[in-house]
Structures are given as structure tokens and as C-alpha cells.
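User: Last request for today: this protein with adenosine-5'-triphosphate, please.
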Amino acid sequence: MKKHLVVVGSINLDLVSTAPRIPLSGETLTATGFATFPGGKGANQAFAAARLGTPVSMIGMLGNDSFGTELRANLKSAGVDTKAVHETATSSGIAQIITSEGGENVIVVAPGANALVSASFLEKHIDLIRSSGMVLTQLEIPLETVQYLAEVTRKESIPLMLDPAPAQPLPSSLLKSVEWLTPNESETCSLLGLKSQDVSTEAMKEVAEILLQRGSRNVLLKLGQRGCYLALADGGRIFIPAYSVRAIDSTAAGDAFNGAFASALLQGHHPVRSASWATAVAAVSVTRHGAQPSMPTHAEVEAFLKEREGTEQPV
Ligand code: ATP
Ligand code: RIB
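Assistant: Here's the final one, the structure of the complex with adenosine-5'-triphosphate:
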């Protein structure tokens, strides 16, 4: 029987305006397009893994509004088990996103029901967590909940993958309970207290070592269109370049990556092979609009890799 993945995290409706560029403070621009998409870092990662064929259960909260109904239905359509997604008398999480025609984006999240994913709520689903092969979480739910989850997974020896997004300072007790820490560039800088938002290719090795010293057993740095850098507990170090694709919307590229990476690790693949697979999944996702609608199926990733055969290999 396939082991299942548990995702504890946020579920949002993304309200996405496309503008010629990201507006300056105080400036009003006219959008060239608008669309809504199912999103939220937790739900995106659960959706991505399920689309690839991994058994996934999501633990989270929705509001008792029409957005909540739509968001649950979308998760179910990919095969995500939503029995541990509860509804509460508040609004569902919302993300207001502006994407520029140049491919940048800015996001403001109104947590709504996601703020109610508490430690006591997780306790109701403790058996589900205990039965999982891996747990995946992010920081769009309260930090105390993530800390509680990390205590549970450490005690139960269940690998925990933490996507430290959106960035915030993290206690070392939490980092020490993490098997996989997967920050993007700006989150890496924030974790290290750096002013810069970018991690140069020269600096990536050094920053990964510092994050390992802070306590996470393994570190995977997501470096946007450059690719990713893996620093493993067994001493393995490797940079995996991204595929060159015509990117139209990078929203949730990191979520596509995490869902795929966790799925491959859960199936017992080596971390390098798993990251290489996740690189292909994320590359396909950036060629499509929206968060969850951009996540490819296993067959679509295989087709993408076949097309690229002989032209380039990520490792
Ligand atoms: P997001 O916050 O948009 O979900 P992120 O900032 O967490 O994403 P990124 O580092 O931007 O994560 O992207 C994750 C992975 O997706 C990268 O490591 C890379 O493999 C792939 N990727 C991102 N952008 C591109 C691109 N333009 N072309 C190809 N692959 C990409
Ligand atoms: O990582 C992308 C996600 O961040 C979006 O779907 C949005 O909901 C925000 O949570």
C-alpha cells in the first residue's frame, strides 16, 4: 500500500489581477486581466502531490462561505482527502495577488479561517498525523500550531517538511525538529537576518551550511529560474538547474516543487532524484496560469521529460 502524505496548512482563494507592472506605493494602475484560482500554500502543495498520484490528506480550515465550498470541491477533484478540513463561521482565506506582465508578483494574504488551525484542532486529527509517511507544512497557519506539529512528528519519528513561507523568524527548537527545510531566496535571507532578498550562486553553499547548523537535517534552497540547491545530512551537496521554459506565471512554483519533492521522497526515491523530478514538475507549473490549475499530472510531467530527452538533463 502507498504511504500517505499529510499536509497541514492554508487554503485560500486567490484573486489575481494582471497589471503591466507592479504598482508603486500610492499608485493606481488599470489591470489588463483578472481571474480567481484555488490557492493557499498548504492546499497547493496537497493538490500538487495528489495530481501526481500520491495519497494525500489535508488538515485545514475553510470559512462557511461559497469560496469554502469551491475550494473543498477543487481539492477533492484532485483526489485530496478533505475529511480533516473543517468549516467554521468565518470567511475563507483570501490572497490578493498582482502579477506583472514581466512575471513578478506581490501577494497579500487575509488568513480568515486559516488563523483558526490551532494545536487543539490538530489534536482532533492526531491519529491521521501519526499514520502518515511524511508531513508537509508552511507558515500560513499560526506558528504555535507549526511548533506543536513539529513536536508531534519528532516524537513519532515522522519526517516533517517545512516550507518557511511566508518568511518569519523561527525558533531553533522548531528548526531542530525539521527533516526538510525548503526556503526560497527571500525566505533564506529572512531566516538568516540578511537585508538582501537574493541568494547569489556563490553564496548558496554557505547559506545552506548555516541553515544546517541551525538544526534542520536537510536543506533545499529554491532559487527560482536558476534551480535549486540540496544540502543533505549525509554530506551530499548538489545544484540542480531549472529547465528553460516559457514561464507565464510563477505563482505556486514553490508549492508545485514541494508537493512533488515530498511525493517522490515518500515513494523512497533518493533526494537528488526527488529534487530533479520536482524541478520538472515546477517547470511545467510555471508555463500555466494560477496556483492549483497549474499543477501537472504524472503523465504530463513524463511527457515534458520525454520532450526534453537528450536536449538537457537537470542532473
Ligand atoms: P512561489 O512563492 O511562487 O510558489 P517560490 O518562490 O517558493 O515560488 P521559486 O524558487 O520561485 O519558489 O521556484 C521553485 C522552483 O520552481 C525552482 O527551484 C525551480 O525549479 C522552479 N522554477 C521557478 N521559476 C522557474 C522558471 N521561470 N523556469 C523554470 N523553472 C522555474
Ligand atoms: O505560494 C502561492 C500561494 O501563496 C498562493 O496560492 C496564495 O494563496 C498564497 O498563499
